[in-house]
Amino acid sequence: MNEPERFRSPEYLNVLDPSPASQACQIEPSAIQCMQQWAESGYPNEICGLLIGTINTQGWLISKVVQIDNLNHARASDRFQLDPAGYQAVDKSLRGSGEEIIGVFHSHPDCPAKPSPTDMENAWEGFLYPIISVHQGKIHELRGWCVNDAGKQFQSVPMQSISVHLQSGSTSV
């Protein structure tokens, strides 16, 4: 896949912390499959959703994912805006379950699975941010990211399927 020039610009490179995160992510295979299916079916637009699970000292444990509507219709091919009503409904449904919203995933149509300056502006510390790269309608890569301790850049997060290891924080499918 050709990387768009903007991903090599100082503005984009400045959101990446070269050191990896100290925590990792474990994810149910069914959650990976759902994110990938939604990303392919939503192409050429960005899709988005929520990660459900728990966080401990080792990192994030994702048990399931929920797709949420992208309200950014004007720039749906390169931006997303989570529907707040969808977020609130999922949050409410989790009360008392022992699980919570632990992150946000989204796709990058025909772009790498790297965060953008816009992603950084909207990121919350403590959340996990998987990005799914979709090239010409097919999954290219899945990578996890989190905000570093300084709160100014993203660090790569190793992601492991609970049954299959995804090497170096990404998978090419």
Describe this structure in words.
The chain has 173 residues and is of the alpha/beta class. The protein has one domain (5-171): Cytidine Deaminase, domain 2 (3-Layer(aba) Sandwich). 20% of the residues lie in helices and 33% in strands. Strand 4, helix 4 (117-121) and strand 5 form a beta-alpha-beta unit. The two termini are 13 Å apart.
Low-confidence stretches: 164-173
- Number of structural units classed as domains: 1
Total beta strands: 9
DSSP helix fraction: 10-25%
How widely separated are the two ends?
A: 13 Å
Calculate Rg over CA atoms: 15 Å
Looking at the structure, what is the overall shape? globular
Number of helices: 4
Question: Which secondary-structure class do the elements indicate?
Answer: alpha/beta
CATH class: Alpha Beta
Mean pLDDT across residues: 93
- Output the CATH topology: Cytidine Deaminase, domain 2
What is the succession of H and E elements?
HEHEEHEHEEEEE
Proper CATH architecture: 3-Layer(aba) Sandwich
Beta-strand portion reads 25-35%
Q: Describe the biggest sheet? A: 9 strands, mixed
Corresponding CATH superfamily? Cytidine Deaminase, domain 2
